[in-house]
């Protein structure tokens, strides 16, 4: 049984970097505090009093005695007051008061560390080509996905705690919608959506049945196909519910960022960034992409432009490039969100009546204090897409090269380890060697059951599903903010 070796050293070094260096040089903190983001400060009560023309403190409040105590009413000002908010660059001190800042910093910094570990491991596997070692970078990627889902779950439960708002109904409605959508997608033939999920599940069932037969057990398979798809649809509905508000928020930030952008290049990149999930969804629609690109109709004959393995590799690279574009456009979207403070004030000026100074200050300050919540809603789906793609490459046995000779073979029917390993053991330290051999047999058995065909189908579907949920919710948000909201 192979020892982790170099991978263990890389993991220990990265753990030390996360403990010693990242607290001082954090990418998450730099994304917010690099001087490019500016937030609007709420006016003080004295400034509002001066603007309202109430210079004297005694006239600012109406006092009355009640049971011997003086009861004061809060200061109110006209809504059409001539108020202009002051801006300030986001600093590290300002981030201390932000909601969910520790969760945001941990998710981004851990994602960076996990990505570095994955890249180093890929280089190591490319040159050394180990055969008996466990790829420890997969554990890092799984941890990143678990942290991202945990953060989205925490944000969703926050919406459920709101009693008066309709956020709870929105989450439940979209959850049921995505459950029905997932069930509909899972029954679509692979002639249209080529995830390879049917082939992967069939291979998984056959391998599991062979393993159980060798153990002397009779079984029809670990789980039926209908049960598998049902639980997968439930999991997909939860992901869709978690991605509901990130998609809705992205649509609003996209519209505001387009209004702020003055250069055509920036506007074009914003449109591409918004349509990026749609491009990812179309990559698995077989008649539109794979069949047409690999076998384009050229006269009477169709000449293949690339192999199937090359197309799979290009699909991985395209997803990673679109994720990089989304990260690059993060500042534009966050600044568009911060500008909501001035936008709310401008909207208030169009209304009649009066507003208390406390409510006005809360309205302005709330925008900045929830900046990390918006950042998490922007980053978490991006992290999920990126690391699901990395898992798809490794577990699905894909290649990073685009040349035809880089086609990888899938070990579908591997022979299970025989019991002769026990008889070949030397006499010394038999208990330890038996334990090591048992672990080796168990790991090899798992490799034969959970084959690359299964991971390729399952991870392809999950990557496609995350992109589909993001595009569905953002498209609905775009329609809502453009046509249903009252300007």
TrEMBL record:
Classification via InterPro entries: Transmembrane_161A/B
Localization terms from the record: Membrane
A Pfam match: Tmemb_161AB
Regions crossing the membrane: 106-125, 137-157, 169-188, 230-248, 269-289, 367-386, 453-480
UniProt signal peptide: none
Entry GO terms, CC: membrane
Family: Belongs to the TMEM161 family.
Designated name of the protein: Transmembrane protein 161B isoform X1
């Amino acid at each position: 049984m192979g020892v982790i070796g170099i991978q263990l050293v890389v993991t220990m070094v990265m753990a030390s970097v996360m403990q010693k260096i990242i607290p001082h040089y954090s990418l998450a903190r730099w994304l917010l505090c690099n001087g490019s983001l500016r937030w609007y400060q709420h006016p003080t009560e004295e400034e509002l009093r001066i603007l309202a023309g109430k210079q004297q403190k005694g006239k600012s409040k109406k006092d009355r005695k009640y049971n011997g105590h003086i009861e004061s009413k809060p200061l109110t000002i006209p809504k059409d007051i001539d108020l202009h908010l002051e801006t300030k660059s986001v600093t590290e001190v300002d981030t201390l008061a932000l909601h969910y800042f520790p969760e945001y910093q941990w998710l981004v910094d851990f994602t960076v560390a996990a990505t570095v570990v994955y890249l180093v491991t890929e280089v190591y596997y490319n040159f050394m080509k180990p055969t008996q070692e466990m790829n420890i970078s997969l554990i890092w990627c799984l941890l990143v996905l678990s942290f991202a889902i945990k953060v989205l779950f925490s944000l969703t439960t926050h919406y459920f705690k709101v009693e008066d708002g309709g956020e709870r109904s929105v989450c439940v409605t979209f959850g049921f919608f995505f459950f029905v959508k997932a069930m509909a997608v899972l029954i679509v033939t692979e002639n249209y959506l080529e995830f390879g999920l049917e082939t992967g599940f069939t291979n998984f069932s056959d391998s599991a049945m062979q393993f159980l037969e060798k153990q002397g057990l009779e079984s029809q398979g670990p789980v039926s196909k209908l049960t598998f798809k049902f639980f997968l649809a439930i999991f997909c509905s939860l992901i869709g519910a978690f991605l509901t508000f990130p998609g809705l928020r992205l649509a609003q930030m996209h519209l505001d960022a387009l209004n702020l952008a003055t250069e055509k290049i920036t506007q074009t990149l914003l449109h591409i960034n918004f349509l990026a999930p749609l491009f990812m969804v179309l990559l698995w629609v077989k008649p539109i992409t794979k069949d047409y690109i690999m076998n384009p109709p050229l006269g009477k004959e169709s000449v293949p432009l690339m192999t199937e393995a090359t197309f799979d590799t290009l699909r991985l690279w395209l997803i990673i490039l679109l994720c990089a574009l989304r990260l690059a456009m993060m500042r534009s979207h966050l600044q568009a969100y911060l500008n909501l403070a001035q936008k709310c004030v401008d909207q208030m000026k169009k209304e009649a009546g009066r507003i208390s100074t406390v409510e006005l200050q809360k309205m302005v300050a709330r925008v900045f204090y929830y900046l990390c919540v918006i950042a998490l809603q922007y980053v978490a789906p991006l992290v999920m897409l990126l690391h699901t793609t990395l898992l798809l490459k490794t577990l699905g046995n894909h290649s990073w090269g685009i040349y035809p000779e880089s086609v990888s073979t899938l070990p579908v029917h591997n022979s299970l380890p025989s019991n002769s390993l026990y008889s070949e053991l030397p006499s010394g330290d038999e208990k330890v060697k038996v334990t090591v051999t048992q672990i080796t047999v168990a790991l090899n058995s798992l490799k034969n059951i959970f084959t690359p065909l299964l991971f390729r189908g399952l991870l392809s579907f999950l990557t496609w599903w995350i992109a589909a949920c993001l595009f569905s919710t953002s498209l609905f948000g775009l329609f809502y903010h453009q046509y249903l909201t009252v300007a």
